[in-house]
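Why do we care about 3D structure at all? Because function follows from shape, and shape follows, mostly, from sequence. That is the central idea of this module. The next example makes it concrete: a single protein chain, its amino acid sequence, and then its structure expressed as tokens.
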Amino acid sequence: MPNPASSGTGYLDVSSWLQLFGEQRGWAYMDELHRNIATYTHSGSKPCKMAAAGEVPIGISFEFRAAKSKAEGAPLDIIIPEEGIGWDMEASAIVAGTANEEAAKTLLDWSVSKKANEMYNVGYAVVAMPGVAKPVPHLPADIEDKMIDNDFEWAANNRKAILEEWQKRYDSKSEPKG
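And the structure:
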């Protein structure tokens, strides 16, 4: 599993479990999960890559990495929890006072176009523009229905406390940074 202190994917997992199950049940879930964790990686895709290589039997990871690995022949089963999955969104902005404001506007205008959303679908199963995403091989067609009602403000406001608690409980199994 990715370490939530160094991986956005890992933090997304932890904050999602706390939102899904509530704090008490969420930490209890992670206590039991921790007993089965070989190592917490500093990469969101590494657990999947390790499972694809046969180094571990299960990798908690970004689902798109699993679909890509399976498409490349990895002997993986992709399991989306019935309870739902966390998710995040990509965002862009123009920095106030930039010297190249017109070029930035051109880029951002393109980034929200249909063509750009079709290109995003190569790396993401769900894109912002309705009706553009095509099913991704090896992922459930209803993956959007599995996305939880993610409270981004709660996750951001509680990040420091969540990471402190997580590190106190589980950091002993984190791989060395390097």
